[in-house]
Amino acid sequence: MKDKNSNTFSLGQILLALGFAFVLLVITLIKKTFPFPAFDVVSDVLSLTLLITLILIVQPFAQKFEKNPVDGIKFISIFLFALVGISFAFKNLIGIQKVGEFTTLATYVDVISANIYNLIYAFLLSIVFSIFLKILFHERGREAKVKFIITFSYFAIFELSRRIFELPNLLPQLLGGFQIILFMWISFRIPWVISLSKKDKYKVLLFSFLSILFSFLLQSPFVTGNAAEGMRYYSDLFFSFTHFYFQPFLIIYFFFVFGSVVFHLPTGEIYERRVTELSTLQNIGKLVARVFDVKEFSEMSVKIAMEITNSKSAWVEMKLSNSAQIYGRYGIEESEMLKIMEQILHVKEKFEGVHFKEGYHIDNFEGKIILIAPLVAHDKTLGLLYLMRDDKNYNQDEINLALAFADQIAIGVENSRLIQESIEKERLAREFELARQMQKKLLPKSLPISEKFEISALSVPAFEVGGDYYDFVIHEDGNISLIIADVSGKGVSAAFYMAEIKGVFQSLAKIYPKPVDFLAKMNDTIFEHIDKKFFITLVYAYFDLKRNLVYIARAGHLPPVLVKRGTLKFLKLPGAGVGLMPTHSFRKLIKTFKLKLEENDLLVFYSDGIIEALNEENEEFGYERFERAIISASNKCSSEIVRAIYNEVMSYQGEMQQVDDITIVVVKWKK
Prior knowledge:
Distance between the termini: 66 Å
CATH class of the largest domain: Alpha Beta
Structural class: alpha+beta
CATH topology of the largest domain: Phosphatase 2c, domain 1
Helix content: 55-70%
């Protein structure tokens, strides 16, 4: 849609330019019969408007040269050549005649020819002018634009003064000379020439010379002939802009470009070498990004470092484990290398301590110069890069390159270590995923269904594997045992104990359905086997469906919630965590709570992930919000209650990461 509008706008500009050109044709034809000064003013205004419109039309084409001055100068020389050609073609097609002191066009056909010539000339000039501005402002700041505005404003004031006032004979020449000084002022600094390659410098020399030549030819009566008079008749302002402003500007600017290129031509090779060095460093940087094999990477880097610093031999010593290892040895025998390293052991020891301020060390060994650069990553020395050559010392540029390569090698080694760590993390992640799948299988696949009650449950681990667990056992008489447990800690260890709890629960609950007996036997089983860093909290409930009774016992877990006749109560029963103490002490702390269940009674069992959920201000969800969430949803079915509580916690938590497992089990009595 955007492109369509853009094309429509360009077409509108073209039609507008043709409209201005047609009006100019009419004005110049009328001026032929009625040579009033007012028509000259109208012609000047219309020609200026036409030129501005054409400049706007050609902007998309000129934009291509904003960052490519070499091609820009080439196209300027091409279009200047076209201007020379069109001027030369029209110089004899336009007839002129003298009328008193004034020169005018001979016939109406000459007026039409002059209009065609000037329209083509204005179009080509708009292209040259637009590209020229891109080159003029390239790699220059606001100061270049300010200077350009000053030069153009000076020309406008000069032209206005010339038309309004009769200036003394010498004053126009003096004012024109100052205009030339302004052109030199804006053309003096050309920063983009320095960064050109030698090949591009030769191109700029050729095209800038051609641009100067063609600009001179456009000033010559031999090329323009009567075409220049046709332009003056068409619009005196347009003639002044081309002949007294823009063409001199082009000549001076490209003269400075030519001189700047000649001055910087000897530095071309040095610059290209710098580009090669930077390109090499860039390639090493790309290699760093995908390095896997430290040895292979080090060997490639050392070889390049040796070549670019004009060294005769090189090697890298790295301490990746407890012992140092040599990588990428080139141009030196192992025996000689070991001898040198033994001689300069004191330098190596200094690098392993406090770094030299210079970041490198140069030593002399039997007439050979050795440059040692540390491989430093995260303020830690991983190894040393050794470069060696004959008696010629290393200059500062070569030292800087060596240090740069040492940094790249260090980054590559560090990347390799990080990649290995990443691979290890991926392996652990796969193991966690496997454990998570196993954990899901430990939770009940289906929930008990009865006319007496409805049960819903939800468990969301904080990490890949959590320590929360809930389960049910349906006894032969139809009664049900329920457990919700939380293993201290997170991750695989917690999940391991969770699996152990499942086995204990499924086996013991069928034999010892009453809460105190079950918990005592469970503690007896767990206490001797659990790691002392872990313990288990849980709530156990036994539902007698025939008598509408529930027996609840708590072993250090969060108190269950009872909602009866619209009143909420936390069942804060005594009891210690499983596995913390011997069974004879543990049993004394356990008490059973007996409850007669009625229609719409609600029991909520949960883990501490709900109460301890944090918001962005690090404030806990807490018991009060938990109570409100339960009460507000208590009239709903059990599944909707579970979802309402969970959504309330997630909404409170916001963007904060879940820090603990969340488990909710809701039992709602029907009758």
